[in-house]
């Protein structure tokens, strides 16, 4: 099965992590992803190519609208894809949905990865385009209830027209390592310090400004603390760096930059701080909980991201910095749980990529087409129907004899099949 993925950017954020997490598993289930990118370079380019994925670089829709449409149509004309999966942070750009619909792609998936839309122009486009999504998309998917209701509407969500696919992770990749903790803390001189951590891009939703305000309050009460910020030194990085100097915190804040081995940094932390202005179900929080970290997050983050309620404290952004600081320090003394227990609870909450990738393939859009051989019978149909099979190609000898009238035999087969499915 071939799926064309649209919407990945040039920076490895949550949306990009979602696509790649599932790709790494689904590629071993005979599902191949190809990618469309309108930037100079797509995130994870090298890994995508190693996994066998093709990357199509096409004009940026904002700079060359007609060129974008022309190239996308060309791709869909030259390669027959089973599905087009459009990853969306808003409805500001629904062009790929419309083009896929025009090109008669059999399955068109609109996937909501966010729950808010910054920027006036983007908000206007988002509101204008939202009602059109249902016209073009055959399937609507969201990373959580908040993201699903926000992009597709309460009515569609309540009517069961939106499928939830969690931002699942490979638990072992983020599990706590005592060795990593000791080595990094020794390397950076953090042996006797309380380390408050955060992983995320330097942009408005992550609220690094407030993070520094909260940390400044903590420093005023406790000296042996560090704030570790992991994320690419892009976006608002320079502004946050300057604010760190202005507050006299330059010796207390460590900018780790982009890191491939996130587990090493999570293991070195004592508590995870996440005061976002808005979020859907952020990967960073799931990864932090997979490491066993206690987390302090804003109420603007969807509660669906909470896997371990006893280890997460949610606060309103209206609370003052003193209250936030107190919560952070209180949570920093919590011990981590055993890795096997963490993995089990992640699976139960549908955040384990191994189980969720299978669910995506079998139940939510990437379905099997099964050919039933001549030995099929009523029991076979019943079993296959229970498994959620989408399409059957049936030989002639199973439910009727070769010398029977084909029309009568076909009607008989449909009648038997419907009886089995409806039992």
List the helices and strands and how they pair.
Layout: E1 2-6, H1 14-26, E2 32-37, H2 45-50, E3 55-57, H3 65-78, E4 83-88, H4 95-102, E5 108-112, H5 120-129, H6 133-136, E6 139-142, H7 145-152, H8 154-158, E7 162-164, H9 171-174, H10 178-188, E8 194-199, H11 208-221, E9 225-230, H12 237-246, E10 253-257, H13 262-268, E11 271-274, H14 283-290, E12 294-298, E13 312-315, H15 321-331, H16 339-348, H17 353-363, E14 369-372, H18 378-386, E15 391-394, H19 406-421
Parallel strand pairs: 1-2, 1-4, 2-3, 4-5, 5-6, 6-7, 8-9, 8-11, 9-10, 11-12, 12-13, 14-15
Question: What distinguishing features does this structure have?
Answer:
423 residues, alpha/beta, 7-stranded parallel sheet, 6-stranded parallel sheet, 19 helices, 15 strands, 17% strand
Give the biggest beta sheet: 7 strands, parallel
Judged by helices, strands and strand pairing, the structural class is alpha/beta
* Helical residue percent band: 40-55%
Cα(first) to Cα(last) distance is 31 Å
């Amino acid at each position: 099965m071939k799926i064309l993925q649209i919407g990945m950017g040039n920076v490895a954020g949550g949306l990009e992590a979602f696509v790649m997490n599932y790709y790494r598993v689904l590629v071993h289930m005979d599902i191949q992803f190809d990618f469309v990118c309108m930037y100079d370079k797509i995130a994870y380019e090298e890994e995508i190519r190693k996994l066998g994925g093709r990357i199509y670089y096409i004009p940026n829709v904002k700079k060359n609208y007609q060129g974008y449409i022309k190239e996308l149509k060309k791709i869909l004309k030259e390669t027959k894809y089973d599905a087009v999966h459009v990853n969306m942070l808003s409805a500001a750009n629904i062009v790929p949905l419309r083009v896929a619909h025009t090109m008669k792609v059999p399955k068109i998936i609109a996937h909501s990865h966010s729950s808010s839309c910054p920027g006036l122009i983007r908000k206007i486009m988002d509101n204008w385009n939202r009602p059109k999504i249902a016209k073009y998309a055959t399937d609507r998917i969201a990373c959580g209830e908040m993201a699903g209701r926000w992009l597709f509407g309460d009515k569609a969500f309540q009517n069961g027209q939106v499928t939830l696919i969690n931002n699942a992770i490979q638990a072992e990749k983020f599990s706590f390592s005592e060795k990593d903790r000791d080595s990094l803390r020794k390397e950076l001189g953090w042996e006797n310090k309380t380390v408050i951590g955060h992983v995320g891009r330097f942009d408005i939703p992550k609220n690094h400004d407030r993070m520094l305000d909260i940390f400044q309050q903590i420093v005023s009460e406790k000296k042996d603390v560090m704030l570790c910020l992991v994320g690419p030194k892009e976006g608002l990085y320079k502004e946050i760096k300057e604010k760190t100097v202005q507050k006299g915190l330059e010796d207390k804040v460590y900018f780790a930059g982009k890191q491939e081995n996130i587990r090493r940094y999570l293991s070195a932390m004592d508590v995870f701080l996440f005061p976002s202005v808005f979020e859907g179900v952020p990967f960073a929080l799931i990864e932090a909980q997979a490491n066993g970290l206690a987390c302090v997050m804003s109420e603007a983050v969807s509660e669906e991201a909470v896997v371990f309620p006893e280890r997460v404290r949610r606060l309103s952004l209206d609370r003052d910095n003193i209250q936030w600081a107190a919560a952070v320090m209180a949570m920093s003394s919590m011990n981590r749980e055993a890795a096997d227990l963490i993995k089990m609870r992640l699976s139960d909450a549908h955040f384990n990529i191994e189980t969720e990738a299978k669910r995506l393939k079998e139940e939510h859009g990437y379905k099997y087409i099964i050919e039933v051989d001549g030995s099929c019978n009523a029991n076979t149909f019943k079993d296959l129907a229970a498994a959620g099979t989408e399409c059957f190609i049936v030989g002639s000898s199973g439910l009727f004899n070769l010398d029977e009238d084909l029309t009568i035999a076909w009607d008989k087969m449909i009648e038997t099949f419907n009886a089995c499915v409806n039992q």
